Amino acid sequence: MVLSSKKWSTANIIIFILLCIGAVFMIAPLLWMVTTSFKTKMEVFALPPVWIPEEWLTAKYSEIWTAGPLLSGIKNSVIVAVSVTLIGTFTSSLAAFALAKLQVPHKNKIFLMLLSSIMIPYPAVMIPQFIMFSNIGWNDTLLPLIVPGLFGNVFMIFFLRQYLTSVPNAIIEAAKIDGSSYFGIYAKIVFPLIKPAVAAQLILWFMGVWNDYLAPTIYLTSEENYTLQLVIGNFNAMYAIQTDYPLIMAASVISLLPMLIVFLVFQKQIIESVAISAVKG
Amino acid sequence: MPTKSKLYRKEMIYGYLFLAPPVIGMLLFTMYPMLYSIYGSFTDWDGLGQMNFIGLDNYKDLFTDELFHKAMFNTFFMMIGIPIGLVLALLLAMGLNRGIPGTTAFRVIYYVPVISSLAAISILWQWAYNGDYGLVNQFLDLFGIKGPNWLANKHTVKPAIMIMAIWKGLGYSMLLYLAALQSVSRSYYEAAELDGANGFQTFRAITWPMVKPVTFFIVVTSIIGGSQIFTEINIMTSTGGPEYSSASAVFYMWQKAFGNFQLGYSSAMAVLLALFIFIVTLVQFKFNEKSSGDLD
Fold first, then answer.
1. Quick check: B123 contacting A, CB < 8 Å?
2. Which of the four CATH numbers 2.160.10.10, 1.10.1060.10, 3.40.80.10, 1.10.3720.10 does domain B68-267 have?
3. CA of A175 to nearest chain B CA: how many angstroms apart?
4. From CA B255, how far away is CA A75, in angstroms rounded?
5. What is the CA radius of gyration of chain B?
6. Contact assignment for A245 to B127 by CB distance below 8 Å
7. Which spans are transmembrane here (chain B) (predicted)?
8. pLDDT tens for residues B166-186?
9. Which of residues 143-202 of B touch A (CB under 8 A)?
10. Does the complex come out with an ipTM higher than 0.95?
């Protein structure tokens, strides 16, 4: 069925064409979003439809910054995603090191307990969490979005622990005999070894935090505290009434760009680590 | 040797120190709130006054709450998209596994919706589903089909959201399938070809058994994700759709909790959701035990 000598057999040409049609369906809505953001209001509501704007208007891309708190939204999202993933990665990788390489009594029980907590979905705990954070006055701040993440991420611990099993114990034993401290072993030996796995997991986690929507809707009430996702959600609600679709689409394009760039730069690592997660999971 | 036991003690202390943050985090932000949800579900909790124990009243009320039934029905209805997405993803992965030029480019293109923020994608599709000027109906118009106003019609709103979800998730399932297919040794297919097996036979005897575990993984994670669908609903149909026809379970829960402050009542829904996901995960666990036995 699959032989490389038949690269351009009739079957393969048909499949190639089908894949191209599929690709058009995947990318067309996104391109349409981009072209809409450059159209005039007239063109948006023209019949028959205007696919490509006559003149590429960039006005909306300067207007969005004053039409809503877009800049502070980006700033808030960066604060949340960077602090969660950087500190959370540190705590997660330390825990993974302890689970994989240190002699700790009951560590397998502890690991199983951590794993079983993944089963509990966020909506099932969001109400008590909300009351908890309200009671200490963290409502309408970024703290409820940041603090839980600082304690680590069980998915990341799982994958890093898995990855660490391929690191020979002898390296760590040797360092112990040399009198290195445990934190020294982690910082000088373990962390450099697991860096590629850490990077891939960090990117995936960053995307998850960046794109989160439910938790921010619960906690953030004043516009200046909105994360980027809430800001564009609000753009949508506000300007749809005025049918200013170019403006809404321009804001959405801006919100997609950072992750798109991260993806295009790291696509190989991202795609690989996602594929591994399924084979192992 | 006294030094050895001292070393061991030190290692243990550091081990617990390193494990402390995730364990404390789990207890504080998952276990404690979960137990509190269970407790709250038996009370008339409203966030302000006293919490009075009311037994199973919340659960009994859910049993007769028509909006809750509707939300549950909508949530499960939209899961019809899961098998459709699965078939498409497998076909795509098989197409991409033939060594056709451009495979990497296709992989990236199909994956772009996956990494895009759900909020932005929902905004885009809400506009694309616009009855008069949306991309979807403009496309259908090319074939002379007059499309409905998708999100304002109680019959089309669920399929519309489902199609969007398939579009967004396709790249992810495809990637997992592709990884599974690439782990299949080429020699199996060569042997099958020598034996004169046709495409369908090869698929049934080699491809399908090899991708079965991944299929199961995707089904389970999609059911878990699908049972928590919220963002799309909240953005595309902010009131829950015409006659509440697109409201999902989590959407209803969210409205009851943060709109009406019926925290006890929403907690009962939260407990049911957690229970449902617990059962689905348990099934996956049992299945994995069985299938890993098969491979040995």
1. yes
2. 1.10.3720.10
3. 13
4. 28
5. 25
6. yes
7. 12-35, 76-96, 108-128, 160-180, 214-231, 263-283
8. 999 999 999 999 999 988 888
9. 167, 170-172, 175-176, 178-180, 183, 186, 189-190, 192-193, 199, 202
10. no
